[in-house]
Write a structure and sequence with these properties.
This protein is mainly α and about 280 residues long. Helices cover about 70% and strands about 0% of the residues. The protein has 15 helices and no strands. The termini are far apart.
């Protein structure tokens, strides 16, 4: 049997062409980044002009790292400039305890716009995934900073912080979420998000506040979210049956009640469904 040989010179030519195109695009990108760095780190230029080149500044070369750090650490500079500078060197947080502490300090600033805070939180979250010695040395300080940032003026920061803490089953964050749902204090996040975050680590003492949301909340999304999480609370059986039987309730809410009741007591769910 003759040996089969497949040759496609056009395919190889196309690969070489694509590689060459990629190299040219990369070289062009590097040149644009270098030009952007010259403008961005030039303090004599207008802030608007410096920010206008930030999209081209996709990385910071070694000779500009110290400039980026100095700009990031200078609280007298506009936050927008500091945010751009730090975002380009945020990966250094993983290996530098000093820079990590700088980021933690930023997170503690509750009156900032939040732009730099979110970048700092993201950098610390990435560092936590590496399980580095640097992160472990600063983890307690980072958690303290997140506790402070729960009361940040920026709602997106509050959401990010509370979700992060809730995922780690933080007791203080859970207590603040309960207070927010009870409206004993200024709401930290939207009610449905508060219920969602609380559900990451439900305890028996959380059910009363979820029942209250399910019965009294004027937010239909929050109400459904609360009902979905009552499927393991024996004391919610009557509430779930009542919601399921209420023809004035919207279909999604009744469906959530049916699912929760089935989880809690399949027989009761079957009987309630038959009545309907």
């Amino acid at each position: 049997m003759a040996k089969y040989s497949y040759r496609d010179s056009n395919y190889k030519k196309r690969l070489r062409s694509e590689d060459e195109k990629a190299r040219k695009e990369n070289a062009k990108k590097i040149a644009a980044s270098q030009k952007a760095a010259e403008i961005f780190f030039d303090s004599s230029k207008d802030i608007k002009e410096r920010l206008s080149v930030s999209d081209d500044l996709y990385t910071v070369r070694e000779e500009n790292i110290s400039k980026a750090l100095s700009l990031f650490r200078d609280y007298d500079q506009p936050e927008e400039l500091r945010a751009v500078a730090f975002s380009r060197i945020a990966g250094m947080v993983t290996s530098s305890e000093e820079i990590m502490q700088d980021a933690i300090k930023v997170i503690k600033d509750r009156e900032s716009s939040g732009q730099l805070t979110l970048i700092a939180i993201n950098a610390l979250q990435n560092a936590s995934n590496t399980a580095s010695d640097t992160y472990h040395a600063c983890s307690a300080d980072y958690r303290d900073a997140l506790h402070i940032a729960i009361d940040h003026s920026n709602h997106q920061v509050r959401e990010t912080v509370l979700e992060s803490l809730a995922l780690s089953k933080d007791a203080y964050a859970q207590q603040r979420l309960i207070e927010s749902l009870k409206e004993t204090a200024e709401p930290l996040v939207a009610p449905d998000l508060a219920v969602q975050f609380l559900s990451y680590d439900l305890h028996a003492n959380h059910f009363p506040v979820l029942r209250e949301v399910a019965e009294k909340s004027s937010d239909p999304v929050a109400k459904r979210e609360a009902i979905r999480n009552l499927g393991s609370d024996e004391n919610s059986s009557d509430l779930l049956q009542k919601t399921l039987a209420d023809a004035n309730e919207d279909p999604e809410t009744r469906h959530a009640a049916a699912a929760a009741l089935t989880s809690l007591n399949p027989q009761s769910s079957l009987e309630a469904s038959k009545k309907i």
